[in-house]
Each structure stands twice: as C-alpha cells, then as structure tokens.
Specification:
The structure is a homodimer. The first copy, chain A, is built from 13 helices and 12 strands. The first copy, chain A, is α/β, with parallel strands linked by helices. Chain A has one domain: TIM Barrel (Alpha-Beta Barrel), CATH 3.20.20. An 8-stranded parallel barrel of chain A has the order 1-2-3-6-7-10-11-12, surrounded by 7 helices. In chain A, strands 4-5 form a two-stranded antiparallel ribbon. A two-stranded antiparallel ribbon of chain A has the order 8-9. In chain A, a hairpin with a 2-residue loop joins strand 4 and strand 5. Chain A is globular, with a radius of gyration of 19 Å. In chain A, about 60% of the residues are buried. The mean pLDDT of chain A is about 95. At the A-B interface, helix 3, helix 4, helix 5, helix 6 and helix 8 of A face helix 3, helix 4, helix 5, helix 6 and helix 8 of B.
C-alpha cells in the first residue's frame, strides 16, 4: 500500500490530522529525567541525548493512540552529535513500534549521486557486500529541492522501491521565507513553480484518496499562499508547520484541506511536547512522572480546534 | 583571524586552489583495507565506516602538504548510519590535525530555531548545563538558503563567535540546477538574487583580501552564470564543484577568479580520491599500500591545470 494511503487511513482512524513534532529541548524535560542522566553521565551530550529519548518515549506512549504520526526534527538531535543522533534513531524506531507514521524532518538536499547516499540512509538501504541495512527508520522525509529534480529522483526511486514518501519544501512557515520563495517569475511566485514540480514528481504515486506520496511543506503562517497552492496542487498532500507557537491558526490553515476534509497534516511541536509547562495544562497531571498527560490533552485540544475549521 | 583569510593564505602557501572532496565509496577503497575490516566486523556498516576512515587518512597523509583544504561530503557517511557519521567526524578531526581547512559539505537548512541547532552542531557549540561541546570539527559548512535569511542568521552568529565560515548554494553544478535557480525575476535569475543575498550576509565578514567568510557554491559546469556571479558578487569567495568527473574544465572556471587570481577554491572528489583506479596514475605507485600517491599526483596535476588558466 502506498505510504500516503496509510497516512490518510491513520488520520481517518484517529480523526486527527495532527502530527506531533518531536523537537525536544533540554528545558522542556522534567528534572526528574535530566537529573537522573546528569548523575550518571555528567553534563554531557550523552546525558542530554538519553534524557531526550526518555522524554520522547513518554510522549509517544501517551499520544500514540490518538495521533497518526510524529515528526522528529533531526537538527535537535544532531546538535548533540553522535549521542544525539542515536537518540534520534531510537526515537524513530520506538514511534514505529507503537504504530505511528514517522516523518523524518531532515530537509536534506544535494546533487544526484549525493542525494542517492542520503536516500539510502533515510528511505532506502545501504549495501555492504551482499548485505543491506536500514540505518534510519522513516516513512517520509522532508527534502529541499533548490537543486532541482536531480536531487529528488533518488528519493523517488526509493519511494517506489520501499513504499516511502517525501515532503518537498514549497512555502515554509518562517517570517522571511519570501526572500526567495515569493519572488515572481512572469507573475508566478517561486513557491508555485516549486509546487508544479512537486505535482509532477508525484504523478506516479497517487493513491486511492487522490493524493500522492510526494507531498509538500506549506506553512500555516501564510494562508493566502496555502490557498493558492491547494488549488494548483490538487494531488499533493501538505505537511503544515507553523500552527500554534509560530502563530498559525486553525482558521488560517483550513485552506490546506480539500472539500472532503483531507489533504493535509498539521504539525505542532512546542504546543504539544511542552504543554506540561503551560498553566492551561497544569491540571492534567499531578506528578512530573505524568507530565506527558498534558501532551495528550494538547493533542485532543488541537484535534478539536482543527476539526472545528476543516 | 577571519577564516576566509586563513583559507586564502593556505591557498597562497600551497599555490593550489584545490579542495579535495572526501566522498569515499566502497569500490574506491583498495581490497587490502576493506577485507581487513570485513574479516573483523563482517559485511556491516561498521566495517564500511572503518574502511572509509582508513582510506581517508591515507589520502590526507599524502595530500596535506600540497592542498589547503578538504571537503568531506557528509551524505557519503550518513549513508552508513551512526558508524558512518563517526567516521565522518574522525575524518574531519584528522584533517584538522594535519593542518587542513575543513569544509563540511552538509547543505543543511531550516527555519531559525532549527538552523540554530544545526549551527550549534556544525559550527558552534552545544551546551549541557555549564559545559560546552563541539560535536563536529568544521571551519566552513555549506548551507541551502531556500528558506531565506531566517535560516542563515544562526550560522552567521556562530561565524562571528567562533571565526567560522559558510558557503551558501547559489548556482549548483548538477544538470537540472536551472529548474529553480535559472528562473527569471524581472530578467534576473534566481541564482543572482541568491547571490545578492549572499553578498549582503557577508558584509560584516570581509577580510584582508577583500573576500568574506560568507561564500557561495558556484558550479564549474555553468561558466556563463559563474562569470556573471563573479561580477555581481565582488566580495564573495566561491566554492566551485563540478571540475573533472562532472565535466567542468579549468578554462571554464577561470571566470570564478578575480584579476589577482584569487576568489575561488575548486573541488575535485573522484578525480583525486579514485585516481589510483585510473590507468593514467598506475605508475605513481607499485603497491596497493601506496595507492594514495596517485591522489597526490592528481592534486599536483590539478594545480597545474588550474594555474595554466587562472
């Protein structure tokens, strides 16, 4: 089954087009977790990474039955070097074991032979002698296509071979995304030119719901642009960052969905994984060991907020 | 001292504007190396990674006095997961110990808070409690600025704090780079728009030779575009991929240098690190243990080829 169909089925089952951004920072993690690892490993990247993994597992345990997917942001782990990347890989593995779709937010990009190496790592397999290894556990990854189709084709080949998917950056959620993305080419902005390429790359991957396994990243913070992209990219599923902490509202991102209420999955990171730090969620848990109940409630609240508008 | 001045001094000392692309593939590595590790670790990513590191050290030992810099391509290591990334880190450390400037070809990109995490990893430091750690050993890294200045500012902050540099993708060497990069905005191509941003980002980093620590990636395979970029980016140093195996010729890339013969460093990967597999270099070494003498000769030949045209 195409991975996009699996994702949409999971969204329908949970009734929740929310993806939990697993982008932990040390200050989000309750002290009972961090102190344990600082005691054991000192104030080291290893302790930080172990605490992040423990934290993520708690979050995953508490949300895995009510959301379809998680999106770990690899930069937050790469920051801590090899130890951090080990925690990243184990986070992805654990989420997959718990039945979640894993969207690796890696935004990799390069020319063809190099993109092939990235794709071997993140979607496909690496080969040593006759043996094959999957070093990372991803269902989808995000990619940056500034280099054009040469850098995308190797990922498409692995999407085909291993039933995987990608989300290509079209219009990102950050304030200055327009510096390049909004430039006009004969009246058409670059993000729309990128959108047309993404539609084309997805042609061979369209599934039973009419969407392809080649999706696009479209920020919730730019509703006008998202509306336009929804019109010109009818077969492209959107991964929508920017909800909540970055300022994107449910009303704004409703345009990312089609008339049947499908077509997008909305990410929230801080709003969910750091919910236990907000006054609004203090009553969800009595003890720091239950902090992730706040994340669970935040997922339910986000679901209700999104469904109100879709 | 600004890192760009250190790089230009090293180029002047060696008389060689060549950067050795350390992008190993298993089939480049002599069997006496790979077999040793397969015997010890089986056909595993660990064996592959150990062989790559050994191979790189041999190359570095044989070229470190005649080239200014190396550019390991992280994708080639990431392909082998954690083991590969360990080999990447050790390769960078070893090259730095041998006095080489290390350009990490990582092409990372993201929104601001995430770009900050990447920059902590690759140029700056990560913090755990009061402790600080440098997880990767880089003087420069390559970055992709499709997301605009939000994703670049954190790297600039670390360039300032730690005397580091970046090379931002402007016009890449791959055949289809024009799909986005050549689109015209009121007659000006996107790569030139990107070039103007890069010049601006580099304003505060201009050193004694008139070039800044914020450089640009400009492919040798597109001489017309490179010529134009040299004119409109007078303070921007170019990292030039595409020489040799990708088809770029010394005559074509002379336009990347200014009238004083500075302004660019030219990458070759396969042409140097796989030189021992070419008939032309068979006479450089008598025994597989000396295979890297071919790489040394290839660096000298490349120097002569470039200096003929600059």
């Amino acid at each position: 089954m195409l991975i996009i169909d699996k994702l949409i089925k999971k969204i329908n089952e949970t009734g929740n087009p929310t993806v939990v951004g697993l982008d932990p920072r040390l200050n989000y993690i309750p002290e009972y977790i961090t102190e344990k690892y600082y005691d054991k490993y000192g104030y080291t990247p290893k302790a930080a990474a172990k605490a992040m993994l423990k934290f993520n597992k708690k979050i995953i345990d508490n949300v895995c039955d009510i959301v379809p997917a998680v999106k770990p942001q690899i930069a937050m782990y790469e920051r801590y070097g090899i130890d951090g990347l080990k925690a990243y890989i184990k986070t992805c593995e654990y989420a997959a074991e718990k039945g979640l779709i894993v969207i690796g937010d890696i935004k990799r990009s390069d020319i063809s032979s190099t993109a092939e190496a990235y794709s071997d790592a993140h979607l496909g397999k690496c080969r040593v002698g006759e043996n094959e290894f999957s070093c990372f556990t991803h269902d989808f990854v995000t990619v940056n296509a500034y280099l054009g189709s040469d850098g995308i084709t190797p990922f498409l080949d692995d999407c085909r071979a291993y039933e995987k998917g990608i989300f290509v950056l079209a219009k990102t959620s950050n304030p200055h995304s327009g510096e390049i993305q909004d430039l006009l080419v004969d009246g058409t902005p670059i993000y729309e030119k990128m959108g047309a390429l993404i539609e084309k790359w997805g042609e061979d991957f369209v599934g039973e719901y009419g969407f392809s396994s080649v999706g696009a990243v479209v920020g919730a913070t730019h509703p006008q642009q998202a509306k336009r992209l929804r019109e010109v990219m009818p077969h492209t599923f959107f991964l929508v960052p920017g909800y909540g902490a970055q300022g994107g509202k449910a009303e704004d991102l409703a345009v990312c969905f089609d008339k049947n209420g499908i077509g997008a999955i909305v990410n929230s990171s801080r709003g969910i994984i750091a919910a236990h730090m907000k006054d609004q969620y203090k009553d969800c848990f009595s003890d720091d060991k239950d902090f992730a109940l706040a994340a669970r409630q935040a997922c339910i609240d986000m679901k209700n907020d999104l469904r109100r508008c879709i």
